[in-house]
Specification:
The protein is 25% helix and 24% strand. The chain is α/β, with parallel strands linked by helices. The strands form five sheets. Strands 3-2-1-16 form a four-stranded mixed beta sheet. Strands 4-5-6 form a three-stranded mixed beta sheet, with helices on one face.
Length: 342
């Protein structure tokens, strides 16, 4: 089938649903389990966007819980959102990377299912490699299986054939050591309809995904990319962020047009309880049908970041919510969501 048959739509295109998971494993989350559940519940309520009459205005929540206890917790904390809670096994909640990437085609919606190897073998959990097929079956769409490693968070698309990625992740020897850059580009054309891949360099410090692009740069409209401006003072990502801005300013889209670059304030140096820098960022926002939900970490630059992102989405509500406990698991709001196009 010609590669133009499949296309990953932009995230701002209409969704029929969002797929995600409920924090379910106490042995993974430990003391952060309950606080992470509260943060995830707040995210889901914002995406559902229930009006004063109790009618969800956003999109359908399709939430997977790994066991009966997690299902009961999800049902209780998501009451009133219209969420469908599905009990099925999985390793952890990072559905941007383990669930399928939904694509459109003349034949209808399909689910592009790639191999998942625990971000280069770092976190291999039972059940994660089966998530894509489970979601495709529950969504009742055709599953297209691709025998190479790809995580959804390593790409960001404009829906018109252009995508952002990083060399640090997609060319990492711990993913597809036998695939060249040209071969990866060819496979992305065939599977997701990506005709032009914009290669950035490194991602954030201490990001165990090896530089997922959804933590550093995002398409927010055709030809428009948002990225982070380094925070004043001791920003641990200063050099990387400056290089990303420079690379984007010299890049062109699939039509050969220069990109418009919009900068969002970086949160600066955010550390965990041990003083280690964490890959905190506002770029891991989720673009829902009616709301854009921005993760926050207690930075003095949080409000400015939400305000900057709100200007990019004037037809949606922009909501800033705490993700301080979710990020202890390694990711944030975009990392745990996977949209299903309408």
């Amino acid at each position: 089938m010609p590669h133009k048959s499949y296309l990953q739509p932009a995230e701002w295109a209409p969704h029929s649903a969002v797929w995600s998971a409920w924090p379910s494993h106490g042995e993974l989350w430990e003391e952060d389990l309950d606080p992470a559940r509260a943060e995830v519940a707040a995210l889901f309520h914002a995406i559902a966007d229930v009006d004063a009459n109790g009618t969800p205005r956003g999109e359908k929540l399709q939430i997977v819980a790994a066991n009966d206890e997690a299902r009961e917790s999800a049902e209780r904390m998501l009451a009133g959102t219209g969420a469908s809670i599905i009990t099925a096994p999985f390793g952890d909640i990072w559905f941007r990377d383990t669930a399928p990437i939904f694509v459109t085609s003349p034949q209808g919606l399909a689910a592009a299912c790639f191999r998942f190897n625990g971000w280069g073998g770092k976190y291999v959990l039972p059940g994660d490699t089966e998530v894509a097929q489970i979601v495709a079956a529950e969504a009742e769409v055709v599953a297209m299986q691709y025998d190479w490693v790809l995580e959804g968070g390593s790409l960001d698309v404009d829906g018109q054939g252009t995508a952002l990625t990083t060399r640090q992740c997609l060319l990492n020897a711990n993913r597809n050591p036998n695939l060249s850059q040209a071969e990866i580009e060819r496979r992305l054309r065939d599977s997701l309809g990506i005709e032009k891949l914009i290669w950035l360099g490194d991602g954030l410090a201490n990001d165990h995904t090896d530089g997922h692009v959804d933590n550093i740069a995002r398409f927010v409209a055709p030809g428009v990319v948002a990225c982070m401006e380094p925070a004043p003072g001791d920003d641990p990502n200063r050099d990387a962020l400056k290089q990303i801005i420079a690379d984007l300013k010299s890049a062109t889209d699939v039509n050969g047009k220069k990109l418009e670059i919009v900068t969002i304030p970086s949160p600066g140096r955010i550390t965990d309880e041990d003083g280690e820098v964490i890959p905190a960022n506002p770029m891991n926002f989720y673009i829902g049908n009616t709301a854009v939900v921005v993760p926050l970490y207690g930075s003095p630059h949080d409000d400015a970041a939400v305000a900057a992102i709100a200007k990019l989405f004037p037809t949606r509500r922009t909501v800033g919510l705490s993700a301080k406990h979710v990020i202890t698991g390694g990711g944030s709001f975009h990392c745990i969501t996977q949209q299903q196009p309408a």
